[in-house]
Amino acid sequence: MRVSKSAVIGVLVWSAGSLCAGEPGKRAITPEDVVNIRDVYEPQISPNGNLVAFVITEPVDTNKPDEGRNSNIWIVSAGGSSSPRKYAFGPKQEFMPRWSPDGKYLAFLSNRGNDDKNQIYLMAAFGGEAETLTSMKEGVTLFKWDRDSHNITLVSQDSLTTEEENRIKDKDDERVLDENIKHVRLYRVDLATRVVTLLTPENESVNDFDYSPDGSKIAFEVAPTPKPDDVYYRSKLMVMNRDGSAKHIIGKESSGLGNVRWSPDGNQILHFIYPGKSEMYISELVSQIGDQTTTLGEDYPGVIWEMEWIPKRQGILVSSQEGVQGIIGKLDMKSRKVDLIRKVDRPYWSYSNWSINATGVWIAYVDATVTSPMDIWIMKVDGAEAKRLTDINPQVSSLAFGSVEKVQWKAEDGQQIEGVLVKPAGYGPGKKYPLVVQIQGGPAWAWWYGWLCNWHNWAQLLASNGFAVLLPNPRGSACCGWKFAEQNYLDWGGGDFEDIMAGVDYLIQQGIADSTQMAIGGWSYGGYMTAWAVSQTNRFKAAVMGAGLSDLTSFYGTTDVPTFMRWYFEDYPYGRQQVYEQRSPMTFIKNVRTPTLVLHGEADLRVPISQSYEFYQGLRDMGVETRFVIYPREPHGIGESAHQIDVLQRVLEWYKTHLITAE
User: Fold this and answer.
1) Whole-angstrom distance, CA of residue 570 vs CA of residue 576
2) Three-state SS for 648?
3) What is the average pLDDT score of the chain?
4) CA distance 17 to 399
5) Could you give the CA distance from residue 619 to residue 611 in angstroms, rounded to a whole number?
6) What's the pLDDT tens digit per position in 10-42?
7) 528: part of which helix (H) or strand (E)?
8) What is the SS3 string spanning 105-167?
9) How many Å apart are CA 139 and CA 158, to the nearest integer?
């Protein structure tokens, strides 16, 4: 049964789409508004800097809900002389646009073929019909142009044999775990002959790769298997000749997290590594002369998301976050400091959202504001002449947004903690508001100042409907350097929980939050922290646990990334279950009194749905008000539009029902 679409806030009652009190001419944001925003990503500037190709993902066509969201490739003049126009489009998906180094072609991925697999397609730079370049049986997941524009190197997974396909048809399809692994391999396709050559026949799986400047060698990361646990924690950086010969490991073995980038002078390779006891990553340079490694950003008080060498210049361009502020900056290899080029307000999770032209003069990037989602921008590499090129979601100008500001407070041990406060739309100073605390995933993740509105980020939806929302970055968050990120090592629910509660008390002291009307919620680690919070305090009147962890021991044995837990809890749980149990919400389930909404995708492998079943059953046994909503087909992140709307609607209604009393 779907929940009601009406809303009650204090003495104000409105239905979806009605005007918002305190915001003349604006209306409250609805779940449909959030889900129907067009997503913009992957800007790719042409080598000469004249054009920018990018991807727009459209909302679901209500007349064709089974087809899902459709992505198309658009193009816009970098000088802003013309309006954006569709470039590669159709009824299926087009994405990952990549210009050839000579600027003559644009290649992209699409599943427009009969097999519905993502293959590489090729179009002339001036447009026309797309030509199919590959026919890999399992499709293509990643590709890059060779330096000479004559070949494309791609990543594709092993396919089933004919015998295996026949067994599946006959229902004789039992599987033995960790056997008959389908590896992910590198191939090269010659554009002139269409001949495909296998480059990595060994039983290892490729994660990422890049060419040397002269095109003679390939740097690549491989893992023992394509399983997430191996890819994230047991990858190594290697180099081989262009033809696949003379492979050898460079740098530290079992160290590699992608973003492989070969320096313009050919002497160094850049990639990410884990530096300590958290999932916070930093950059590493591996020298091709003497195989020396240099760690960059070790003392950086932030987190670097992406890195690119600046063509024809010294220096590394980084997309990073310092505290709650996103930036584009330049990483100095000598001082190892990041110099600010421009502040950005795009979401923390916005990856692959910039590119530099061949001369190293112009950057095309994605940015947003607190009241407008992502658009395509361009600027010079020094930050000059920044210009917005698109306005993809003009409809948001009719919506009422809450004001966004950075807040700081002192933790119990005196450490300064930061977060983001989103005040209700039409906020009136001196008035106390119902408060929702939303905890981020991760824990090595972070909230940011900027656009805060999607299916798992409820801040603006709630603020538009009368709530104050606190987005804290407690210790363990990836916001303030790797040493801050590992402060919850062996301490989940300890210092981080105290940091969150100190932030709540700060807002009460400031006269913003009503201490009698507070709620908590979050997804993934945010779901864990929600379950933990309600087992430790009864101060919250409502909670939403989204895909959260409840029993750390059983989670270790069922998740697809068990090494994740060993990193944070020092070792396996075997023989030391007490270490895991003392940080598990289920251990303290008898303390819970808070009405809790539980949400989970049924196909979640990262946090198996059994975690929510356990917590839900415990809540019922304790007589706590609860509701458990299961989303069929969904993995850890909810992807189907109808399900996203349902998540947002249920979250909004749950908080309204338990925090607001209608007169």
Assistant:
1) 10
2) helix
3) 91
4) 9
5) 13
6) 222 233 445 555 567 899 999 999 999 999 999
7) helix 525-536
8) EEEEEECCCCCCCCEEEEEECCCCCCEECCCCCCCCCEEEECCCCCEEEEEEECCCCHHHHHH
9) 10
250: Cα within 13 Å, side-chain hemisphere: 26
Token couple for 95: 């994405």
Q: What is the mean pLDDT of residues 123-145?
A: 94
Specify the pairing of strand 513-523 against strand 542-546. parallel
Q: SS3 for 601?
A: strand
Tell me which H or E stretch contains 98.
strand 94-99
Q: What is the pLDDT of residues 580-597, one digit of tens each?
A: 999 999 999 999 999 999
Beta bridge partners of 19: 27
Output phi, psi for 292, to 5 deg: -85, 150
- For residue 405, the one-letter residue type is E
Query: φ and ψ at 166, to 5 degrees?
Result: -65, -40
The structural domains of the chain, with segments of one domain joined by +, span 7-15+27-33+396-659
For the chain, what is the largest distance between any 2 Cα atoms, rounded to a whole number of angstroms? 76
10 Å CB burial of residue 639 (0-12, 13-18, 19+) is middle
CB atoms within 10 A of CB 662: 11
Counting Cβ atoms within 10 Å, is residue 205 exposed (0-12), middle (13-18) or buried (19+)? buried
**3 state DSSP class of 594:** coil
Give the start-end residues of each E strand in 275-353. 282-287, 293-296, 303-309, 316-322, 325-331, 338-344
Order across the sheet with 513-523: list the strands: 404-410, 416-422, 468-473, 433-439, 513-523, 542-546, 596-601, 626-631
Strand pairing category for 626-631 and 596-601: parallel
Per the document, the length of the chain is: 663
Nearest 5°: phi and psi at 183?
A: -80, 160
Which pair of tokens denotes residue 37?
């925003």
- CATH code given to domain 7-15+27-33+396-659: 3.40.50.1820
Among residues 259, 346, 237, the alpha carbon closest in space to that of 304 is found at 259
Dihedral in degrees, nearest 10, Cα atoms 332, 335, 336, 341: -40
- CA atoms 211, 313, 374, 652: torsion sign: positive
Strands 261-262 and 268-273 turn out to be antiparallel
User: And the tokens for 256?
Assistant: 């590699």
Does the pLDDT at position 61 exceed 90?
no
Query: For residues 203 and 181, is the Cβ–Cβ distance under 8 A?
Result: yes
Collect all residues with Cβ–Cβ distance below 8 Å to 20 and sequence separation of at least 6.
14, 26, 27, 28, 400, 425, 426, 464
Q: Which two tokens stand for residue 93?
A: 């998906």
CA distance 453 to 441: 15
Q: State the Rg of the chain over Cα.
A: 25
